[in-house]
Amino acid sequence: MAGGYPHKQLAEIGGREYAAIDGGSSRLPADALRIELTGLLQEFVSGVDVEYAVETLVAALDPALFHRLREEEGWPLERLEAGWRKLVEAWISLEG
Q1: Which among 2, 21, 36, 40 is placed 20 to 30 Å from 48, CA to CA?
Q2: Beta carbons within 10 angstroms of residue 37's beta carbon
Q3: Are 45 and 95 in contact (CB under 8 A)?
Q4: Cβ-based neighbours of 72, under 8 Å, separated by 6 or more
Q5: Spatial CB neighbours of 69, under 8 Å, sequence gap ≥ 6
Q6: Phi, then psi, of 45 in degrees rounded to 5
Q7: In whole angstroms, how far apart are CA 17 and each of 7, 11, 62?
Q8: For residues 11-23, b (16+ Cβ closer than 10 Å) or e, as one string?
Q9: Which are the contacts of 94, defined by CB distance < 8 A and separation ≥ 6?
Q10: Residue-range domain boundaries for the chain
Q11: Measured distance CA(85)–CA(57) in Å, rounded
């Protein structure tokens, strides 16, 4: 993925600040991820419900979830990155 992993990009724009200011009402970052993920899955994976896969992956990148896991639970960024990578690998491995 060009530009690194999306959860790192969310961290760079300030996941905590985004979640606090936005309150989840803006879908701009999530929509951008949806477009990129849809294109990638359509190009590289067949036989899966792309729309469902995209929604599942985007949900895992929710800024409020990211903030809770990083700040409140103390999870390292590497753990979140590894988990997200495994989600992507699981969808790719379903290729029929």
Answers
A1: 2
A2: 22
A3: yes
A4: none
A5: 75, 80
A6: -130, 135
A7: 14, 10, 13
A8: beeebbebbeeee
A9: 45, 47, 48
A10: 6-93
A11: 10
DSSP letter for 74, please.
-
Contact 10, 71 (CB under 8 A): no
Dihedrals φ, ψ of 47, to 5°? 80, 15
Mean pLDDT in residue range 56-66:
84
Q: 84: which 2 tokens? A: 């997200």
Supply the pTM of this predicted model: 0.58
- The per-residue b/e assignment along 48-57, b for 16 or more CB within 10 angstroms, e otherwise, is bebeebbeeb
The size of the chain, in residues, is: 96
Instruction: Identify the pLDDT of residue 33.
Output: 77
Query: Counting beta carbons within 10 angstroms of the beta carbon of residue 46, is it exposed (0 to 12), middle (13 to 18) or buried (19 or more)?
Result: exposed
Give the span between the Cα atoms of 9 and 74, in whole angstroms: 19
Tens digits of residue pLDDT in 2-14: 445 454 544 444 4
